[in-house]
Amino acid sequence: MFVCLCKAVSDKAIKQNIASGACTMRDLKTNLGVGSQCGKCVSQASAILHNELVKQ
Ligand code: FES
């Protein structure tokens, strides 16, 4: 499922990036471009980030 349509970034890609060390929204923006255009994906991407960090 795409989370960020502007950059065509899926939830899977976000989870993989977090597993590779991303731990902030800034990391996800830098690495994948999430939230760098319209910003509509930020709340969902942030929720995924927090869920994944809790698991680590
Ligand atoms: Fe992610 Fe627009 S959907 S920046």
UniProtKB/TrEMBL annotation:
Is Cell membrane given among the entry's keywords?
no
Tell me where in this chain the BFD-like [2Fe-2S]-binding domain is found.
Answer: 3-50
The keyword Metal-binding appears for this protein: yes
Record keywords, A-Z: 2Fe-2S, Iron, Iron-sulfur, Metal-binding
Cofactor entry: [2Fe-2S] cluster
Name this polypeptide is given:
Bacterioferritin-associated ferredoxin
From which organism does this entry originate? Arsukibacterium indicum
- Region of the whole protein represented: 1 to 56 of 68
